[in-house]
Amino acid sequence: MSPRKQILLRLDASVHDALARWAGDELRSTTAQIEYVLRQALAQAGRLPDDVGKMPRRGRPPKGAAAGEAAHGDQAGDEDGQADRADQASPGPDQE
């Protein structure tokens, strides 16, 4: 993978807020969403270089990943790979 460039980007606050909401809807960070949108725009304009690397994959590996690859940093979960979230569920109105 080629080295990643770090840049300072100044945005209008409402543009940043809209990007952050969109990123949240698609389970991406705001930075990843900006890169995604820029890559789409470059591809659509025919300006995306041929040698550009793929978007980095972040988060939990897919279900079919090898056990050795998925074991690093994962929470303990049941057989389908999902951690038990019952303790994080919000209480009902009669349980507060």
UniProtKB/TrEMBL annotation:
Which InterPro entries does this chain map to?
A: Arc_rbn_hlx_hlx, Ribbon_hlx_hlx
Q: Where is the composition biased (Low complexity)?
A: 64-74
Report the protein name in the record: Uncharacterized protein
Q: Name one GO biological process term.
A: regulation of DNA-templated transcription
The ranges of region (Disordered) come to 45-96
Species annotation: Catenulispora acidiphila (strain DSM 44928 / JCM 14897 / NBRC 102108 / NRRL B-24433 / ID139908)
Q: Which domain of life is it from?
A: Bacteria
